[in-house]
Design goal:
Layout (H helix, E strand, L loop, with lengths): L10 E10 L2 E11 L4 E5 L6 H8 L7 E6 L2 E2 L4 H7 E4 L11 H13 L9 H9 L15 H13 L5 E5 L7 H16 L3 E5 L3 H7 L2 E6 L2 E6 L1 H7 L7 H9 L1 H11 L6
Parallel strand pairs: 3-8, 3-9, 6-7, 7-8
Antiparallel strand pairs: 1-2, 1-4, 4-5, 9-10
Helix pairs in contact: 3-5, 4-5
The structure holds adenosine-5'-triphosphate (ATP).
Adenosine-5'-triphosphate binds next to β2 and α1.
Length: 267
């Protein structure tokens, strides 16, 4: 069957599971992310977000289930899927002894698979400029701050123009200006037909940026849809996403904890 990006999902997870010894980190997760969508993956600490993202990025093998990217099976067409996917980790590993520009050239050559150096894509300079990294491009990465590293890796993935971006906690370590720019860049990319799958703990980002979200708890997705639809389903139209998230992921215990911390008795 021929892949049709307007009809078929860019990212499809089918009963995806990951076992670490006796722990089921990801449990039969089904997800469908369409072209031009910004999809948010939310969940408490240890819920299985990073594990899922690493499987999609080809860094971890699933125990069962499948990942399909632009109609290609990650299991059987691994190399192609990795070329179609840009992965932005929450804690980037970068080669300290390369300069920013050298790192970008290295990533570019990896994705083009020519092994030969070539001029950087035009857009690389624009992203470096937007992120105030132009004056730093010839400095060694070892001299970059955490936020600068995050912006360099963002640049490296945005410049590639791949159909799918998978991002673990995009705003962690970014200052407000950079975070705002990233939001705008993601929106523009989605408008132009790109697809972004991101994990976040920020309810504001999810509410403001994501077309649809999925909430994962203990490895299983417990709710998926637009924020508005999920609120409607639970009669929480007047509330913010944080309220909905806490209800779905254990607000009762939280209220007890807060009451205990305040020295009150929970009702
Ligand atoms: N390499 C590993 N070996 C064993 N257990 C692991 C490994 N990686 C993750 N886990 C476990 O899998 C579960 C899911 O972890 P994961 O990092 O996917 O959660 P997360 O939703 O990204 O959490 P957080 O919001 O805290 O980053 C956790 O219980 C974690 O301890």
């Amino acid at each position: 069957m021929v892949f049709d990006p307007t009809e078929d999902p860019i990212l499809l997870l089918n009963r995806l599971s990951k076992q670490f010894d006796r722990l089921t980190a990801v449990n039969q997760v089904d997800l469908r992310v369409n072209r031009g969508e910004i999809f948010g993956f939310l969940g408490p600490n240890g819920a299985g977000k990073t594990t899922t993202i690493k499987i999609i990025a080809g860094l971890l093998l699933p125990s069962s289930g499948s990942v399909t990217i632009c109609g290609h099976s990650l299991a059987t067409e691994n190399r192609l899927c990795r070329q179609l996917t840009g992965y932005i980790p929450d804690r980037p590993y970068l080669y300290e002894k390369l300069t920013g520009s050298e790192y970008l050239s290295f990533i570019d050559s990896l994705y083009r698979q020519t092994g030969r150096a070539a001029p950087l894509p035009e857009t690389a300079r624009d992203y470096l400029d937007l992120f105030d990294l132009l004056p730093w491009q010839d400095n060694l990465i070892e001299s970059y701050s955490h936020g600068m590293r995050q912006k360099l890796i963002m640049t490296s993935m945005l410049m590639l123009d791949v159909p799918l971006l998978v991002v673990d906690e995009p705003m962690v370590g970014l200052d407000p200006k950079s975070a705002r720019i990233v939001k705008e860049l993601f929106r523009r990319r989605a408008r132009n037909g790109g697809t972004i799958f991101l994990s976040t703990h920020s309810m504001e980002i999810a509410e403001e940026l994501c077309d649809r979200i999925s909430i994962i708890v203990n490895g299983s997705t417990i709710a998926s849809g637009t924020v508005a639809a999920l609120k409607r389903e639970r009669a929480l139209e007047g509330s913010n996403l944080e309220e909905l998230f806490l209800q779905l992921t254990g607000a009762v215990e939280l209220q007890q904890v807060i009451a205990a911390l305040r020295g009150e008795t929970a009702s």
